[in-house]
Amino acid sequence: MEKFDSFCELMKEYILLFDSLIQIQEEKIEAINKNQITHVENCMNQEQAAVLKMRGLELQRDAVMKELHCEDLTFQQVIEQNSAYSASLLPLFQQLSNRLQTFRSISDTAKDLIEMNLHVINSVLEKKGATTHHYSKDGNNEASPKHFTSRSV
Questions:
Q1: What's the confidence (pLDDT) of residue 143?
Q2: For position 137, what pLDDT does the model report?
Q3: What pLDDT sits at residue 138?
Q4: pLDDT, position 48
Q5: Which candidate in 50, 54, 130, 141 could, as Cys together with 125 as Cys, close a disulfide (CB 3.0–4.6 Å)?
C-alpha cells in the first residue's frame, strides 16, 4: 500500500508539473502574439527548468516502478493489473492524460506561431535583399570573405 501511495504522490507531482508547463506555454503564445521576444526567451528558460525537474521525476518513477515490480508497464497497465488501487489511480491517470493532451496542443500552437513569425521575417529579409554580414574575430564588420572558387585562374 505504501508503495502505491508514493506512486500516487509522484503522479500528482507530474500533474502539477504539466499544469505549470501549460501556463508557461500560454504565456509564451501571448508573448509571441505581442512580439515580446525577451518574454518568449524567459518562457523557454522556464521550460528548460521544468524539463530538468521532469528528468528527476522520471528517475523517481523508475525507482517506484521497480519497487512495485512494474518497471515495464505503462500507467494504464499498472491500473489494470492492480484493481485494488484502481479507484485512486484511475482519476490520476485521467488528469495526467488530460494535462498531457492540453500541453501537446498548446505546445504545437506555440511552435506553429514561432515558425510562422520566422517565415515572415525571412520573407521580409528576402524582399529587402538583405546581405549577410561577416565579422572578424574581434567583432568588427568586414567585407564578405572571398571564396577560393571566386579567384581568377
A1: 56
A2: 56
A3: 63
A4: 96
A5: 130
Quick one: three-class SS letters along the chain?
Answer: CHHHHHHHHHHHHHHHHHHHHHHHHHHHHHHHHCCCHHHHHHHHHHHHHHHHHHHHHHHHHHHHHHHCCCCCCCHHHHHHHCHHHHHHHHHHHHHHHHHHHHHHHHHHHHHHHHHHHHHHHHHHHHHCCCCCCEECCCCCEECCCCCHHHCCC
User: CA 28, 31, 34 angle in degrees (round to 5)?
Assistant: 155
Residues in a beta bridge with 142:
134
All residue ranges of the chain with pLDDT < 70 are 1, 130-153
Q: Is 143 exposed, middle or buried (0-12, 13-18, 19+ CB in 10 A)?
A: exposed
**41-50 as b/e: b if 16+ CB within 10 A:** eebeebbeee
Give me the pLDDT at residue 152, please: 42
Rounded Cα distance, 23 and 29, in Å: 10
Q: What is the largest CA-CA distance in the chain?
A: 83
Q: Quick one: pLDDT at residue 59? A: 95
